[in-house]
């Protein structure tokens, strides 16, 4: 098969790779849509020791099952694999499994390839009325869906407004999840003017530049979808007393939080990583029934042009919140 392979910082090669061989209880998936995630970008820049070269990246995927009784079935892939037996897995918190693995981290190759293998319980059937490009968004949106669910629980469900920091797919997915989960007023802070235009026009969001966010604006709930010191500083400054910060960005590990203000104002900080299997299924269901909108704001490119897509994202030249690659285009 053909695959896009990470060969080192800012180096991607499109070439032949070994076909995956499904094990018992797994299916072989013909990948037809796979998104470029922020974590893929971190690896591409050489900032993720968990993803050493050479490696096939990519984990936001949808496609068709090849072979067997389910041949031709359209599915979206939950890429997170837990052990299934630990306390976390047994109590529905499989995202906290100490043995959790995700495709695109060794020893599991990722989905920037024509085929990938995945176990049956990680596959969600996609109805014919939903495009696979939209179905591939289940993974990134599930991150925001899970964060919103946790934050609302900490607020006892009482959230009249929210601030989302970052207008990429993670931030936009969080904004869509906030609306779908009943938060009526959502503002996105996004520094890229090209992306703000898409967010406000095509995506129907209220996106503002960082300088246009009033210094005294306070929100019940703040979602940081970026995770840098500067964005954490913004989050801790704009959460209201008694509010909640949901932190799902992995930009850098330290700095930014105003711990004194958070302590004095009883602001809750929740770090969240990925989602539970149920969150993934709930997000997929929200995609299928239209609660998250048309999800037509992605840009599609062939996998063969993946290296250029990464370089364009790196240079800030892409307006779309998400680029979807097609390995069979």
From TrEMBL:
Residue span(s) of domain Alcohol dehydrogenase-like N-terminal: 24-127
Record-annotated Alcohol dehydrogenase-like C-terminal domain positions: 169-285
Gene Ontology molecular function, alphabetical: oxidoreductase activity
Keywords assigned: Oxidoreductase
Organism: Yoonia sediminilitoris
Protein's recorded name: Threonine dehydrogenase-like Zn-dependent dehydrogenase
Record InterPro entries: ADH-like_C, ADH-like_N, GroES-like_sf, NAD(P)-bd_dom_sf, Zn_alcohol_dh
Domain of life: Bacteria
């Amino acid at each position: 098969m053909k695959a896009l392979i990470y060969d080192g910082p800012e180096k991607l090669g499109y070439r032949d790779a070994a076909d995956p061989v499904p094990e018992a209880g797994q299916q072989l998936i013909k990948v037809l849509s796979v998104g470029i995630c922020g974590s893929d970008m971190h690896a591409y820049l050489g900032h993720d020791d968990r993803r050493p070269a050479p490696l096939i990246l990519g984990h936001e995927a949808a496609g068709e099952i090849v072979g067997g009784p389910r041949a031709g079935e359209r599915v979206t892939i939950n890429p997170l694999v837990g052990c299934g037996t630990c306390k976390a897995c047994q109590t529905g918190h499989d995202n906290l499994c100490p043995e959790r693995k995700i495709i695109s981290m060794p020893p599991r190759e990722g989905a920037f390839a024509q085929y990938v293998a995945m176990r049956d319980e990680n596959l969600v059937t996609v109805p014919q009325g939903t495009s696979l490009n939209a179905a591939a968004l289940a993974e990134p949106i599930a991150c925001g869906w899970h964060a919103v669910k946790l934050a609302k629980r900490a607020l006892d469900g009482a959230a009249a407004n929210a601030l989302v920091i970052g207008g990429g797919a993670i931030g936009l997915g969080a904004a869509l999840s906030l609306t779908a989960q009943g938060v009526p007023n959502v503002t996105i802070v996004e520094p890229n003017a090209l992306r703000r235009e898409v967010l406000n026009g095509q995506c129907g969001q209220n996106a503002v530049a960082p300088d246009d966010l009033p210094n005294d604006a306070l929100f019940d709930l703040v979602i940081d979808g970026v995770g840098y010191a500067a964005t954490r500083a913004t989050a801790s400054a704009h959460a209201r007393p008694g509010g909640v910060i949901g932190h799902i960005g992995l930009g850098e590990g330290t700095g930014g939080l105003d711990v004194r203000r958070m302590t004095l104002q009883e602001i809750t900080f929740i770090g969240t990583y990925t989602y539970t299997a149920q969150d993934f299924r709930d997000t997929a269901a929200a995609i299928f029934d239209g609660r998250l909108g048309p999800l037509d704001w992605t840009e599609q490119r062939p996998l063969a042009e993946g290296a250029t897509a990464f370089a364009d994202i790196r240079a800030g030249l892409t307006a779309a919140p998400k680029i979807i690659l097609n390995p069979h285009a």
